[in-house]
From TrEMBL:
Domain Xaa-Pro dipeptidyl-peptidase C-terminal: start-end pairs: 28-128
InterPro entries with a match to the protein in the record: Galactose-bd-like_sf (IPR008979), Xaa-Pro_dipept_C (IPR013736)
Organism: Stigmatella aurantiaca
Protein name stated in the entry: X-Pro dipeptidyl-peptidase C-terminal non-catalytic domain-containing protein
GO MF terms held by the record: dipeptidyl-peptidase activity
A Pfam match: PepX_C
Length: 150
């Protein structure tokens, strides 16, 4: 479970997470290669993900994009939540979501981490406790993250 909150607005410090400690029972993690030069994210990243809700037919997924340093500490770049309501249990759905626009500089030697989570106290989950969700990337609709890099 990851926590997003108004702490950044209050303290001025970005939300951080130690990526190796992300609970893999409730989340999935993908990471880029280490960057050999600085990169600038300017605009709204886009996520395409195929989600298959469990028995309830409802689920909430939260996607976080982190700037991760060599220690595994990630600073949040942006995040977005998506809820599937009244979906058919066991049927895959292609989800397209735009992250909020951001202006973020990623230093050389860091990498990007995408965390897809199903539990965050900031968002009310529509799925019942202990329900499942499956993420996939079918060849007919591959999953991806598109970044507006400068």
């Amino acid at each position: 479970m990851l926590l997003t909150s108004g702490a950044e607005a209050i303290t001025g410090e970005p939300i951080t997470a130690w990526i190796p400690a992300v609970d893999r029972w409730n989340a999935a993690v993908w990471q880029s290669e280490w960057l050999t030069s600085p990169r600038r994210v300017r605009g709204a990243p886009h996520l395409r993900l195929t989600v298959t809700p469990g028995s309830s037919g409802q689920t909430t997924v939260i996607a976080y994009l982190y700037d991760t340093d060599w220690t595994g500490m990630g600073s949040i770049v942006t995040h977005v939540a998506v809820t599937l309501r009244d979906a058919v249990a066991g049927q895959p759905y292609a989800v397209d979501a735009d992250f909020p626009a951001t202006a973020y500089d990623i230093p050389s030697g860091h990498r990007l981490s995408l965390v897809i989570d199903t539990v965050d106290p900031l968002y009310a989950d529509k799925a019942p406790r202990f329900s499942s969700v499956k993420f996939s990337s079918p060849s007919s609709s591959p999953s991806y993250v598109s970044l507006p890099l400068k």
